[in-house]
Amino acid sequence: MEYRRMKDTIIARIDKGEEILEQVKILALEENIKLASVQALGAIGDFTVGALQTKVKQYKSNRFQGDFEIVSLIGTINTMNNDFYTHLHLSAGNERGEVFGGHLNKAIVSATCEMVIQIIDGKVDRKFDGDTGLNLFEF
Question: Whole-prediction pTM value?
């Protein structure tokens, strides 16, 4: 991964073979990011995404392998218990135009991933909510 910071915006290139969530964490810790918005596109070859099953408060995950284009990768960087936390969603399409997506668990870059991180002045922590089973923003 390589990146450049310009005031409150970071432009990053995550390279072939790198895992997206790992690289976001490295970057956020290096730059001491406490709150930011993330968007990206690129190509991935192996990814796992999940969908929340609200009745049982658990994620059901699916793994996909092959040639996929990131149609959308969006989310946030923030904190939980004052430690790094990220919440990203990914949609990726195959050569037939079929798109699969959900809560991002893992994604390995197959060519490149171009990411824009918009740093937000401030901090919003997260706290576990037993009613939903989610780590929600805490204001």
Answer: 0.95
